[in-house]
Design goal:
Length: 292
């Protein structure tokens, strides 16, 4: 238990270049997750993110087997997953069933690919739960380039996307291309999800993509405030998770999920207290107001 709170060892490890690289990667990932998260929550895409992460895991496993950059494989798998989910689930009634089918297929193929991989077991385990030593300069460069691309695209489509997320029927009636917007946003989410595989791992990437945004939407319905809070919560979870994982040498994802869930519990308590003071029930997730 003493290792969990070894401040001296933690400070010493923070001086290593690979740790600083991982912290920068976590900060970039936290920014992406915080910006995309409120839109994911308002569009009820949490399950879709999980399905996308499974195919990003499959792509990463294929890259590991072929001896190429895991980040490239995870990115390719996530983009394919986003396109498949967007094309197969045109109707909302079949959305969850399509995601479930794709998720199961992706996880099964990924497990098979890892079984074929003859290398170290730690590399296999790292794909599932994250491994900061796998974040090298090439991975950081890929992460930075993809993050800039995602944020630029999101900046262009944000207003119509927010409108379509809050009130899709009215947005469609007013000429907003809800279908293409949904597909583009699914790809953006897929890219961000894939970028989290090496840091957080495929199984627990939801801890960054969903939980901070869900916590922010608990305490505010303003889209700007929700985004700012989600970014802050995601940064604390991602960077804090790495810092706390250093001394024990434990998987990063365990600490990221614990921190993000604690933040969610605090926001849930605040939301519940506000609801009691006002004498009304507090909704499970606030929905930002749509731009007109």
């Amino acid at each position: 238990m003493d290792k969990l709170f070894d401040l001296e060892l933690t400070v010493e490890l923070l001086g290593f270049p690979f740790v600083r690289t991982a912290l920068v990667a976590a900060a970039i990932l936290g920014l992406l997750a915080g910006v995309l998260g409120p839109l994911i929550v308002s569009r009820n895409m949490a399950f879709a993110v999980h399905g996308t992460s499974e195919l990003s895991f499959t792509g990463g496993a294929a890259a590991l087997l072929l001896g190429v950059n895991v980040g490239h494989g995870a990115l390719a798998g996530a983009v394919v997953a986003a396109l498949v989910l967007g094309l197969l689930s045109r109707r909302s009634s079949e959305h969850d069933s399509v995601i479930g089918a794709v998720l199961a297929f992706g996880l099964g193929v990924g497990v098979l690919l890892l079984w074929f991989y003859p290398g170290r077991a730690s590399n296999k385990f790292g794909l599932l739960v994250g491994q900061i030593v796998s974040v090298d300069f090439a991975s950081l460069a890929l992460l930075g380039a993809c993050a800039v691309a995602v944020l630029l695209v999101l900046l262009v489509i944000y207003r119509p996307l927010l409108f379509a997320s809050v009130d899709p029927e009215v947005a469609k009636a007013r000429g907003v291309p809800t279908g293409p917007l949904s597909l583009v946003f699914a790809v953006l989410v897929g890219v961000a999800t894939a970028l989290g595989v090496q840091t957080v791992g495929a199984l627990l990437v939801l801890a960054l993509m969903i939980t901070p945004a869900a916590a922010a939407c608990r305490i505010t319905a303003n889209p700007l405030r929700a985004t700012v809070l989600a970014v802050v919560f995601a940064e604390v979870s991602a960077v804090g998770g790495i810092v706390f994982s250093l001394a024990p040498g434990a998987p990063v994802s365990a600490f990221v999920t614990a921190i993000s869930f604690c933040i969610y519990l605090v926001c849930w308590t605040v939301s519940l207290a506000r609801g009691r003071r006002r004498g009304v029930a507090t909704p499970a997730g606030a929905v930002p107001a749509a731009p007109r």
